[in-house]
Design the sequence.
């Protein structure tokens, strides 16, 4: 808008200046050896943060769809085939889940689909440049998803093929190196461009082991763990972490997560690593300056019974549900911090260990933020693993399951306070009608609940939060200037029943836990109508001041618009997956709820500033980058989640300000 006597700007000149600034910014980053959002978490240490300010609080409401890409790779719920890894062979397969966060290197965007195809797109237009299909047979795979790919660039360009390599893992347990320019396999890596990571695991069901998260890159190493299907057996494939030479695929080191001084019990010459150990299925971080690799560990197989693990002091779960710092040269443990002792709740460490700089008494401390499924946020010194705020070992309830043993205490952060309320009772039961509320009250009263960490039982134990969190793999995001951490938090209760093996045939949906006395049914605590028995909101977006540990704000995320018929759209805070992305202009972009909306909030206040409808729900974390034509793009993958019964799809959506080139935003000063 202009007023009388105000000279209107020359639009074409503004476009030229904007384009020049965009090119200068991109060239500056290239000169420094940096790329905008070239890693899953934006940087190798995570954070999901961008320095871009073109989109800001004043213009975010004008965002519109710039381009859309569809791969065609998705599946609805369908009946499986013999050999299924479900509880019952031939049982139904869940729908696919599009959980990917793309990366951008130069002028190209790269992403993977739930079927492990890799696409390279023009970052400005979304036009396909190449596609690579690894030929994964997804029929026997229970959970089809791929969270991202990784990039390595030769610091001394040769001009030859594979100077730039895209690494991707597959659901059938392969690690593949592709030429970033053409998508062709790098023939010098492994066996014609790929490694079979089943090697060394011993006899196992191949469909129980696959890679769903992007590998880490540290110098000339590509480092990966793998997903091991939950609750199948005590002798599941081991959770070994391996580092390979990016050029040749040669194994440089491995970390077998055994207690200190223990050696793997090898069954045959095909097995090199211990079976049944904790795995690293989520996203790793690296600190190249300190030559450290930070791995978030899962739980030792299976999740809900651990009587076979060998004791509290040096049991098989010594490194379970932890964040572990490994020496990048040899894979040796530098330190580890365990968030759950003898985990019996599937409370593994799901989030990327996220690096930031803490300030204490004027000194800068290299720090690490580790969210957990319990809603506990541990802030640690990343050189030593020591907590930055006091952590207390508090007594927790014991159980009465024969053959099991229990940790008498669990670690609780005193600051920040828990993000999930740790109390539930018949009096707290919730329902949309009195009948629903009464039904929930009876379910809660009939189960055991003695606070968080109440052990699983045959009676049935309330798990609050449930095994999906709390916080999960999408969080956190950190604004390094404002010293704020953003997390998406579920507020749902679960109920876990241990079932004697002799009765498991009567429970076709139970997880088998072969090798233990019990199969298990870990369910969400729901009413007869399928609504949570805990009051809304069931999903929040939370902001915490990293300096003080104080919660700044918390807002419900999502509505029931796409989960219930009209007029029942008014409940706020609906469960979801995925996390936030932040910009220097003070914006938080997030989907991650039960509805089909993509939103932007103020980092400082939590005020919702923008929302748009997507074709379906999103269970992914967004990202943003400056396209070669000068526009800031915000990208989200919308394809629903495997836990849903509908909405599976394949939409990759890019949003930008209107016009061929958006005007440059003025510099925005950071608030203290």
Sequence:
């Amino acid at each position: 808008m202009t007023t009388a006597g105000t000279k209107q700007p020359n639009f074409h000149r503004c476009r030229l200046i904007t384009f020049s600034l965009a090119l200068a910014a991109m060239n500056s980053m290239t000169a420094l050896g940096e790329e905008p959002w070239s890693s899953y978490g934006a940087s190798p240490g995570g954070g999901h943060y961008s320095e871009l300010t073109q989109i800001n609080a004043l213009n975010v409401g004008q965002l519109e769809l710039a381009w859309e890409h569809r791969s065609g790779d998705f599946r609805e719920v369908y009946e499986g085939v013999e050999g299924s890894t479900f509880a019952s062979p031939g049982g139904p397969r869940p729908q696919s889940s599009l959980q990917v966060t793309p990366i951008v290197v130069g002028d190209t965007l790269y992403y993977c689909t739930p079927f492990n195809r890799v696409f390279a797109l023009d970052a400005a237009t979304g036009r396909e440049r190449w596609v690579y299909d690894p030929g994964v047979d997804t029929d026997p795979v229970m959970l089809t998803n791929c969270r991202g790919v990784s990039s390595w660039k030769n610091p001394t360009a040769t001009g030859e093929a594979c100077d730039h390599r895209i690494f991707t893992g597959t659901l059938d347990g392969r690690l593949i190196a592709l030429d970033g320019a053409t998508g062709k396999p790098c023939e010098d890596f492994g066996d014609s461009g790929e490694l079979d990571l089943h090697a060394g695991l011993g006899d196992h069901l191949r469909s129980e082991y696959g890679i769903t998260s992007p590998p880490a890159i540290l110098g000339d190493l590509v480092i990966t763990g793998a997903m091991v299907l939950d609750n199948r057996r005590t002798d599941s494939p081991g959770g070994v972490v391996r580092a390979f030479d990016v050029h040749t695929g040669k194994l440089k080191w491995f970390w077998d997560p055994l207690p200190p001084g223990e050696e793997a019990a090898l069954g045959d010459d095909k097995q090199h690593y211990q079976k049944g150990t904790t795995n690293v299925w989520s996203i790793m971080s690296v600190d190249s300056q300190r030559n450290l690799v930070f791995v978030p560990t899962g739980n030792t197989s299976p999740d809900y019974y651990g009587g076979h693990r060998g004791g509290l002091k040096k049991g098989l779960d010594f490194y379970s549900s932890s964040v572990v710092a490994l020496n990048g040269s040899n894979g040796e443990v530098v330190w580890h911090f365990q968030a759950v002792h003898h985990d019996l709740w599937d409370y593994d460490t799901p989030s990327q260990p996220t690096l930031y700089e803490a300030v204490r008494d004027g000194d800068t401390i290299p720090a690490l933020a580790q969210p957990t499924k319990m809603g506990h946020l541990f802030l640690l010194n990343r050189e030593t693993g020591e907590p930055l705020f006091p952590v207390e070992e508090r007594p927790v309830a014991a159980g009465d399951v024969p053959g099991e043993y229990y940790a008498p205490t669990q670690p609780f952060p005193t600051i920040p306070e828990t993000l999930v309320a740790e109390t539930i009772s018949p009096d707290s039961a919730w329902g949309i009608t009195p009948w629903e509320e009464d039904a929930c009250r009876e379910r809660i009263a009939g189960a055991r609940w003695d606070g968080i960490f109440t052990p699983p039982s045959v009676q049935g134990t309330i798990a609050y939060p449930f095994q999906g969190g709390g916080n999960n793999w999408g969080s956190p995001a950190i604004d390094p200037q404002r010293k704020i951490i953003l997390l998406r938090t579920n507020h749902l209760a679960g109920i876990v029943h241990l079932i004697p093996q002799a009765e498991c045939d009567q429970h076709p949906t139970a997880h088998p836990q072969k090798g233990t006395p019990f199969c298990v049914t870990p369910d969400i605590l729901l009413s007869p109508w399928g609504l949570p028995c805990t009051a809304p909101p069931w999903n929040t977006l939370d902001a915490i001041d990293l300096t003080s540990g104080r919660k700044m704000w918390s807002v419900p995320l999502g509505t029931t618009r796409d989960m219930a018929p009209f007029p029942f759209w008014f409940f706020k805070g609906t469960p979801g997956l995925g996390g936030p992305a932040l910009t220097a202009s003070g914006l938080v972009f997030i989907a991650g709820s039960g509805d089909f909306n993509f939103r932007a909030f103020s980092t400082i206040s939590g005020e919702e500033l923008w929302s748009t409808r997507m074709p379906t729900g999103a269970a992914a974390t967004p990202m943003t980058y400056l396209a070669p034509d000068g526009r800031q793009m915000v990208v989200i993958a919308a394809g629903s989640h495997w836990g849903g019964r509908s909405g599976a799809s394949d939409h990759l959506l890019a949003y930008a300000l209107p016009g061929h080139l958006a005007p440059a935003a003025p510099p925005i000063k950071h608030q203290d």
Observations:
- The radius of gyration is 24 Å.
- Helices lie at 11-31, 434-445.
- The first strand starts at residue 49 and ends at 50.
